[in-house]
From TrEMBL:
Any Pfam family: AHSA1
UniProt family annotation: Belongs to the AHA1 family.
Name by which UniProt lists this protein: Polyketide cyclase
All residue ranges annotated as the Activator of Hsp90 ATPase homologue 1/2-like C-terminal domain in the record: 23-159
Family matches, as InterPro entries: ASHA1/2-like_C, START-like_dom_sf
SUPFAM superfamilies: Bet v1-like (SSF55961)
Highest taxon of source: Bacteria
């Protein structure tokens, strides 16, 4: 499994997931840059994603929804805040309503995804921070750790296909 560590820190209001992929940084970057590839691994296996809009450009907004096994849809958005291709990108990630508009009643995470060459592959670090410990606790109770781990663990099989 690619995920090698998950660290939750309520005091720092962060969750950090590290993963190792047997592919070069440029290949892992391409997965996140291309919405058709990204939707194959964004979200747990039983909640595949569909990206309506996606571009890794500072200032752009990505919108997506995940479809559950019963046909239920769960929407979200990214606001891209920094890009250093192919090494890192930063974005705010929030929940959205059925019209893909931000839902102000649910937490927003501030994310930094980094990719570095390691042992012939890529070491990826996924850092999510929240404005409050309560917001982090809320998404942990919603299953963010399990969902993110299941999603990231799909990447190896996708890269090998």
């Amino acid at each position: 499994m690619p995920v090698t560590n998950v660290t939750k820190d309520l005091d720092a209001r962060t969750i950090v997931i590290t993963a190792q992929f047997p592919a070069p940084v440029e290949r892992v970057w391409a997965l996140y840059a291309d919405p058709r590839q990204l939707e194959r691994v964004w979200g747990p296996p039983t909640y595949p994603a569909t990206f309506v809009d996606h571009s890794l450009r500072v200032g752009s907004r990505s919108t997506y929804y995940m479809t559950g096994p019963e046909g239920d849809k769960h929407a979200g958005w990214w606001q891209i805040t920094a890009v250093d291709e192919p090494h890192s990108f930063s974005f705010d990630d929030g929940f959205a309503d059925a019209d893909l508009q931000p839902n102000p009643d649910l937490p927003v995470s501030h994310n930094v995804y980094t990719f570095e060459d390691r042992d012939g592959g890529t070491l990826a670090t996924f850092t999510s921070s929240y404005d409050t410990a309560e917001a982090l606790q809320q998404v942990l109770e919603m299953g963010i750790e399990e969902g993110a781990t299941l999603a990231i663990n799909q990447i190896d099989a996708f890269l090998a296909s």
